C-alpha cells in the first residue's frame, strides 16, 4: 500500500515542530492544501473545504502563543457535526441548504485546543448505509467504507492528519480498515456528543481517524481531558485473539491473513476467550441491528415527517422497519442489550484485550455499498473502546485492519496495545 | 393543596373523549388557553406560547382521523428542546434570538402521535442551576424548582395536561415535587435525545410532567413505543423504603412526614436495603456533581467560547471547575461511575423498588434558588427510572413527592407502584 501522506508530519509531530519554532501553522496547512488540490477531484472527500478561513485561522495561531494540544493541526469534521457557519447536510438532500448555527461541543473543544477546522467531510446519508460519492484513495475502484467515508479518505489521502467521525455500527473501524489508516472509537460517551446528529443514541460514538495511534490518542485527549498517549500505562494486557460469531462471512484472504496473524502473537500474553460468553455473542449482531433501526426511526422522526420522499429507499425501509417494531420486541431487545452489557463486564477481567478482524476483508467495489459492519456491531452495542491498525495486506496490496478492543473505560490500554502492534509491524516488517 | 386543573380532563381522558366524539381537540385546547390567560402573568411558565398555531393544528386534527396516542393533547416543551420555527433560547441571553431550524426527535414523535405543541416552557440557564423567572403555582412565593421550571409549573397551573422536561441531576423529580404534580424520568436513553441541548451526556434524560401516572406513562409510551400503562405488569415489586445518604439535609417536616409514610407501607411487601450498598452510596452525590461539571464544560464549550461574559456567575464557575479537573480525577471518576452502575445491577434484584423522598422538603422561597437535587443525584447517575407522586403535604399545605425508583429498564413496574400509591392516597385520604 502506498503512503499518500509521505513526508507530511502527523498531528503530534506538527504540534511539536510548531512549539519548537521549526514550523508554522500556516505552512503546515499549506502542505495539506496542496494534497487537497492534488487529490480532491479524484477522491471527493469534502462537502465543504474552507481553505480561506483555515488559512486565516492558521495565521492567527502563528501570531499568538501555543493554544493547546492540537495547535495548528488541520482537522476534517464529518458532516453530521455542527460547525458554525458551515453547511450541515448530513448527507441528505433534506438539509441541502442548512447552515449550522453553532458548533458541536467536540468541535468547540477542538478549536479551543488550537485545531484548524479545514472543513466538513462526506458522510453516508445521516451516517447510515446509503453511500456518499467518496472514493477509496488506496484501493482503486473501491468504497472507502462508511459512514465516516470522507474523514477516512481525507486522512488516507494525506489531506489532513486528523479527522473526526462517528460510529453507530462500524462507521469508524470499517472505513479505517478499508483505507489503511488508524481509526479509534472511544468508550461510549467518553467524548462529548452535543451537536452531532444522532442516528442511534445507544451506540453513536465520536472518534478519530489518523495515521498513527499517538495521533488518534492526541485527538481524543484534547476532546476528553484524559491522558491516553501510549507508553504511559502500567497495566498488563491479556491478549485474546477472537474470530467472533461473524467469522464465516470473512473473505478467504482474511481467513488466511488472520490465521497467520494469530500465529505471530506472543503465546505467553495470549489467552482463549470464554466459550460460554462467545456463544452468547451469536445473537448480538442481529440485536444491534434491530435496536439501531428502532432508535434511528426515533432520531430521524422529524426528517421522516418533512421529507420521507427525499430519503433513500434503503434508509426509508430501515426507519419503517424500526418504527413497526412491537412494544414487546422493543422491551425484550432493550432488556437483552442491558443484560449482555452487564454480563460482559461481570465475566471478563480488567486488562482483557480482544484482537479481532476490523472488517470481513479488504474494501469491496464502490458499487457494492460501504461494506459490512458485521465485525463491529458487538463492540458498538457494548460501547467498548476499539482501535483498528492497518497491519494486514492482501495479495493485491489492499489493507485490512486489526481491531483492538478493550473493556468499557480501558481506552488507554487499547491504544497501548494498538500502538505496540503498529510499531512491531513497521520495525520488523511482517509480523 | 388546591387543584388548579379541576374540571379539566387529563391526557388519557382527553384522547378518549375525542376518540368517542364527546370532545374536539379545539375545545380541549380552548379550555387550556383560558387557564393560560388566567395564570400566565402570575406564573411566567412560557418562553413562547403559540396559541394561534396550536389552534390551527387542533382544528386540523378535528378535521381528520385519530392520529395517535396523543391526539389532541396540548403539550408544553422545555426550551432546551428544538421545536422548528420556535425560539430555542435554553434560558440564556447567548441564544436570545435563536430560532430552531428543526424539531427534536422527541418533539417530532409527539407531533406524529397527534400532540398539539402549545409552546416552549421556561428553563433554568442551559438546564443548570441559575433560576428562570417562573413562580410556583401552588406555593405562593416559592420556586417551582428547576431546571424544568416552566414545564412543572404549566402542568401544576392546569395550563397543559402534559409537558416534556429533562433531568440531569434532579430537574424533573424536584420541580414535580415542589409543584405537586407527577414527574417521570424514564430509564437512561429510553427516550430519543436528538435535538435536546446537552448539559451532561451521561445523565441527561427526557421525561414528562403530568397530573396522573397514566398520563405520564401515555407521554413516554408515545415517545418510546413501549407499553407502560399501569395495570398491565405481572411482576411483583419488593418495596424498599430508603432514606439514603442525604437524609440529614431533609427538613424536620420531611423527616416527620416520611417516618409516617414508612409506617403506612404494607410490611409484607417491604424489605430493608442492603447495608453494604447503602454505605457505598455516600460518595455518589459528590461524584455525580463532579462528572456533571466536567461534561457540562464539554457540552457548553461553544457557548463558553462565544459568550462567557453572558453566562451567570454560577454556571461559569461550574464550567470552569469542570474544565480544570485533572486527567487522573476524570479517569477515576468515570471508572467509579461505571463500577457503581455495574454493582447496583449485580447486587439488586428484578422487582426491587426504592421509595425515597423526592426532595429535601417543600419548595423553598423563590429567592433561594431552585432547591437541592441531593435526593435525585444517585438515581440520575445510575440512569434508573424514577417517578415522583405528590403524596405528602406539610402543615402549610405544601406538597412533597414520594420518589419511586426501579432498576434500569424496569419503567413499567415503577409506574405501576407509583400509580398504586396515588390511588391509595386519593381513595383513602391520608395514607
UniProtKB/TrEMBL annotation, chains A, B:
Top-rank taxon: Bacteria
Pfam families per the UniProt record, alphabetical: Amidase (PF01425)
Protein name in UniProt: Amidase domain-containing protein
InterPro entries hit by this protein: Amidase, Amidase_dom, AS_sf
Domain (Amidase) ranges: 29-225
Gene Ontology molecular-function annotations: catalytic activity
Native source organism of the sequence: Thioclava pacifica DSM 10166
